[in-house]
């Protein structure tokens, strides 16, 4: 993960150093395996990069990743969606949005198939739109 953090586009050297330090903490990462070879690694203690900052990367692994946490099925993890949100609240919102989009939404297939940026972004926008419609449908 440190190699990944060291190559994140848009991350400044101080941010990379902070993220690398967090990665080295005991249990610094939660892996959140969602099944189908997909996982959402994220810092166990959220890092707030600031209102206009955030990092999102999809990692397509050549070899399966051995996780210390159980996977929900027997499919080895080969696709990681790594993110650092701009705030703790955004961290929780992103975790919910991404996991829902991977489990029930249209993000799963583009990620598994290694789709291009446009298709991934379209799937994310659709998932965010669907999540927004779902929020308004609850009654008090």
What is the radius of gyration computed over CA atoms, rounded to a whole number of angstroms?
Answer: 15 Å
CATH topology: the name is Mannitol-specific EII, Chain A
Q: What characteristic shape results from the CA principal axes?
A: globular
End-to-end Cα distance: 43 Å
Strand content: 15-25%
Binned, the helix content reads 40-55%
The CATH H-level superfamily is: Mannitol-specific EII, Chain A
Mean pLDDT: 82
Q: Enumerate how many helices there are, as a single number.
A: 5
The CATH class is identified as Alpha Beta
Strand element count = 6
Order of helices and strands: HHEEEEEEHHH
Q: Give the low-pLDDT segments.
A: 135-140
Q: How is the main sheet built?
A: 4 strands, mixed
- How many distinct domains? 1
Q: What structural keywords apply?
A:
140 residues, alpha+beta, Mannitol-specific EII, Chain A, two-stranded antiparallel sheet, globular
What does it look like?
The chain is α+β, with helices and mostly antiparallel strands and 140 residues long. The protein has one domain: Mannitol-specific EII, Chain A (3-Layer(aba) Sandwich), CATH 3.40.930. 41% of the residues lie in helices and 20% in strands. The chain has five helices and six strands. It has helices at residues 2-6, 13-23, 88-103, 108-112, 117-136, and strands spanning 29-30, 33-35, 38-39, 42-43, 55-65, 77-84. The strands form two sheets. It has a four-stranded mixed β-sheet with strand order 2-3-6-5. The chain has a two-stranded antiparallel ribbon with strand order 1-4. Helix 3 crosses helix 5 (117-136). The longest helix has 20 residues, at 117-136. It is globular, with a radius of gyration of 15 Å. Mean pLDDT is 82; it is low at 135-140.
